[in-house]
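Below is how a single chain appears once it has passed through the pipeline. First comes the sequence as given, then the structure the pipeline wrote out for it. We keep one example in the README because the format questions we get most often are answered faster by looking than by reading.
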Amino acid sequence: DVEAQRRPVYPKGSAPDEHAGAYTIALRAPDGTDPAAEPAGDGYGSLSVLANGICKGLLILADGTKASMAGHVSRIGDWAVYRSLYGNKGYLAGNIRFRDTAGVADLDGACRWLKQNAVPKTKNYLTGFDVNRALIGGAYTVPAKGVNAFAALDDVFYNAWLRLAGPDLAPTTAFDITMLDRAVTWNNANKILYYGPDKTAVKFNPKTGVATGSYLDKSTGANVKFGGALMQEQALLTGSYLSGDQSGIFTISPRQN
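Resulting structure:
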């Protein structure tokens, strides 16, 4: 099926201000996704919608692929997504609707994500996949100086849980680490702190709502990188990590003290 939209023209002063602004987005994997068969974890990124309806952003897919996003929002709030991937041997496509779903999202829709078999110069999921994913997004408010972007967190030490879950974090050893929880402190300077003994480092960009980080434990051989986007309305930072040739879920959520 082929769907198309006519790009709207807005007279000066009549642009769709209700959609303009900054958003964080996530391409959600269903619960129970088998990371050996298809990418687990969530794609994540940021999106901006201009006053004239033009939208642009960057989505990091759960297999590590970077997908630039572009298009326009129609007069009724629709955004037709199509992004060629893997050297034209795959794509991400779907129809997204800007609408408020209380406590869940400000935009949502279904996407098809396809990668053909044996795509050259790729390191994971070499046999390809053809999956459906829900794309959601939430309005993102850049915090003022000294204000925590993650408003749901208490202003105390160890106020958040960092979790990695899915494929073995140390695939070259026999430790079989498929889940990791760490208590971290997300302070009002929007620094995410962890005190060891392993090395867990997270950097959050309060301008975009995107976090990146790494986990290293020499005693087990674990060494992974991860990233995610803060969904302020959902009180959740969600994303993914890569370990070996598979991916899993990365989250930061409030910790009850």
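The chain has two domains: 21-139, 160-254.

See the next section for the split statistics.
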